[in-house]
Amino acid sequence: MPMEEMIKQIQETAAKEVFGVWFLIGAALVFFMQAGFAMVETGFTRSKNAGNIIMKNLMDFCIGTVVFVLLGFSLMMAQDYVLGFIGVPNLKILTDFGSFLKDGNAPSFVFNLVFCATAATIVSGAMAERTKFISYCIYSAVISLFVYPVEAGWVWNQAGWLVKLGFHDFAGSAAIHSVGGITALIGAIMVGPRLGKYIKDKAGKVTKVNAIPGHSVTLGALGCFILWFGWYGFNGAAAWDGNSLASIFVTTTIAPAVATCVTMAFTWIKNGKPDVSMCLNASLAGLVGITAGCDALNALGSAVVGVVSGLLVVVVVELLDIRLHVDDPVGAVGVHLANGIWGTLAVGLLADPAAPAGLNGLFYTGSFRLLGIQTLGIAAILLWTAVLMTGTFFVLKKTIGLRASAEEEIKGLDKTEHGLPSAYADFVPAVESLDYGYAGAVAVSGDTPVAEAIPVKQVPAFDSGAPKLTKIEIICKEQRFEALKNAMMAIGITGMTVSHVLGCGAQKGQPEYYRGVAVEANLLPKIQVDIVVSEVPVRRVIETAKRVLYTGHIGDGKIFVYDVENAVKVRTGEEGFDALQDVE
Q1: Domains of the chain as residue ranges with CATH
Q2: Sign of the torsion angle spanned by Cα atoms 358, 363, 365, 366
Q3: CA 418 to chain centre
Q4: What is the pTM of this model?
Q5: Could you report the per-residue pLDDT of 425-441, keeping only the tens digit for each?
């Protein structure tokens, strides 16, 4: 063999090995996205359901793995197809594992498995807080066993009918995100809204939409960043050379960044303040939008995808919630269905012939052919999924039930479905039952050993002739507390109790918005300062507080004055005036 040909062969072999390693690394990144979905969904829902959300995301992957091994993968990557529509599974992974490995199917299995799990887990957030766990497990098995493998075979198996037509979905805007999104929409409609989400009159007409904020924006943001990180593997793992991989990384970065900027500006103008949770959704929407054409669009095209995604996610989320009254706690439909469809169609519009995929988009060539194929493909995928998942949810609803009871929903699915008092251990209501080792503690009686570091004296009980005690309760703005504290200490106040409270006065709160829905902010955060005085004149305390807190605007606060019958210092037993004095 000539030296040049040998070198070329070695290079090709090395390239295949490198590609195989990167392919598996990409699969690992996509698997890590399960953590991202879990964090987003947990953060955007209430804490009493956090454990249930985590459990559902865990079981999506585990159940999906079992059924994908049993049938899903063989169905998806079958060599023989009936009219190019449904593959004939060979089950080689179970019957002839050696041959399965020799044919190079193992990397494909791992990669398609994590893709399958992604499609399944999208639905969790849309049906969160009110779906029976057993029903969700059954749904997860159905979509991973049959629904996803069939349509994904159309898109990525060379024998599939969409592949033969020239349909292009590089990483799954249609095959994964639209499938998960349409299932999320059907599930959210069939399970119904959360209790208290929509207020209806006697005729059944919705008169008010309530915002139900998630319990942790921090968790939601962490999930968003994890997903964005994993998306580089999601989109880039199938890249065949360095140039195409670099191009995919560029488009996968531009689209979500632009989408987030657009949503920030849009919600800022619309609501007066930029919406944090909606901007997090926008990042994911831009990622979904670019997924189908990440190898086919240029930088300008990916920016256009981002602009449309940033607007589309807000419009769809608010349309579903405020107008159509479909309760989707995490915005799964707006992110995955709307932008999965948009991303698929964007290939037909914006594909640049000079990009690695070399496709002819309408705006570059004037040809409608690719757009027509893309439209047919996404319509077929949505129809297939909608028919099967509607049937699945209908059967579940009529047999074992789809929705948890009202009592279970109010208590939270952590407690009722999994026996978790709370997913956050420090807030478990039963912690007072723990033995902290104080069973032998003796209460202070006033008679203390001489060895005590601070001398104590026994004093007579409080009587009616003792100096008068007065409690002054001051409610003020949070930002004025430091000035108030310093002023009180300057006039001789040596002790105070400070609390964070919620309240309102004449201002009746101020309007805020969560995901486009007005939040009733009738109770505003305030600081409550409690002071008991005897020696310092009450009027001096009041006048000092008024001077420090006054701004002339509504919400400066209130001062309340009460008579105090007695005060007792626990350590010494001192009462009345003496109990308020510092140790000399």
Answers
A1: 15-200+214-418 (1.10.3430.10), 469-565 (3.30.70.120)
A2: positive
A3: 21
A4: 0.81
A5: 665 544 444 444 444 54
